[in-house]
Amino acid sequence: MRIARAVEQQVQDMLGKPGSRQRARLKKPVWIIAFVAFVSLFVLAVFVYTAQRSGSCSMFSSRGCSTNQILINTPSSRSRPLTDDEIASHVVIREILHMPHAEPKNPKIAFMFLTPGSLPYELLWEKFFEGHEGSFTVYVHASRERPHHVSRYFMNRDIHSGEVEWGKISMVEAERRLLANALQDQDNMQFVLLSDSCVPLHAFEYVYNYLIFTNVSFIDCFEDPGPHGMGRYSDHMLPEVDVKDFRKGSQWFSMKRQHAIIVMADNLYYTKFKLYCKPGMEGNKNCYSDEHYLPTLFHMMDPGGMANWSVTHADWSEEKWHPKAFRAQDISYELLKNITSIDESLHITSDEKRVVMIRPCLWNGLRRPCFLFARKFLPDALGNMINLFNNYTRI
Ligand SMILES: *[C@@H]1O[C@H](CO)[C@@H](O)[C@H](O)[C@H]1NC(C)=O
Ligand SMILES: *[C@@H]1O[C@H](CO)[C@@H](O)[C@H](O)[C@H]1NC(C)=O
Ligand SMILES: *[C@@H]1O[C@H](CO)[C@@H](O)[C@H](O)[C@H]1NC(C)=O
Ligand SMILES: *[C@@H]1O[C@H](CO)[C@@H](O)[C@H](O)[C@H]1NC(C)=O
């Protein structure tokens, strides 16, 4: 980067800063100006070329920073030597990211349901899955009671589960359990986490193509300097997790296979969050691992590999502790069309400035609707959703 900056300086000098040199040049013949412009262009091209070659975070590179560079350049590692555990962890993660992956003949999507008990929307999901056998697998983690299944797609799909307490590390443990089970199927390429109040927003083919033909994970991630973001950070996470790297995001992810393997392989960062990101930390800090662990881990390890938004919509417009819950009387074709037409992601910081960050949802570089699923839909809305399914999923 130092070389790049030096060249940039030269370019700026040659293009002419305001001052006496420029005024002098203007008096000279036109061919000198043309020559200077030509040389400037050449130097600029060399600058772009070297910046890309060195894998730096060039402003001209659409890819952003290359992975190699990030591992060497994480803010926390720049000023200190890495610990033995960090070196071990970084080589494993880098290796996984660079592993050539064999494309299965029949790539599938793993639909992983995290629920306390029965799933009220099984019959809607059945309409969604119908006719696509062989392109998906279902996994159910029921933490409180054995679910009563009403759809054939959900029968015998319960995995061994454990207790889940809201906001605690047991939530992340359950997510890891689902990933571990779903990874056993070599054909699963994207792993979607869903809840008992989630509904599909599109027909199966649409969701399948959206998730199979993307090479990023849809993990929600943003920087929140406020009390519900960095305010939850504890210095106990040092040195491995610096407050500068602490990120926030909704837990409802869809991640690619490589990233699911990284979650399995990570013990170092997981343990940090398990010990130091929990409700009642240091007396009054309520840190919720399920909202911080994955965004922070992937922000540090593979920022270019995630979309930074979740494909599961939630309506936070009421600005309450939980998103708006939709009841039977709220369900209409217009509501669903409104949700499926959203094509920009929205994040709001929790400090008093309440900075609103709006970004277009770019799918392989194209602007497209952000959401494939939505929550929270209350059980009484099932009938209305089934009646409307064929309508609202028509493109
Ligand atoms: C994803 O694929 C696009 C197009 O092939 C490519 O430009 C981009 O670098 C890839 N991103 C990652 C994280 O592999
Ligand atoms: C996601 O955010 C990170 C910064 O945390 C950025 O480097 C990356 O390019 C973003 N991903 C996309 C697809 O824009
Ligand atoms: C749908 O969006 C329009 C335009 O923003 C809004 O006026 C309308 O109230 C919305 N309808 C529902 C049912 O959310
Ligand atoms: C649903 O589709 C049917 C058949 O195409 C159509 O007649 C009806 O108006 C649609 N309903 C809504 C709410 O769009």
Automatic annotation (TrEMBL):
Keywords: Glycoprotein, Glycosyltransferase, Membrane, Transferase, Transmembrane, Transmembrane helix. GO terms for cellular component: membrane. One of its GO terms (molecular function) is glycosyltransferase activity. InterPro entries: BC10-like, Glyco_trans_14. It comes from the Eukaryota. It is found in: Membrane. It is a single-pass type II membrane protein. The chain crosses the membrane at residues 30-51. This is Core-2/I-branching beta-1,6-N-acetylglucosaminyltransferase family protein.
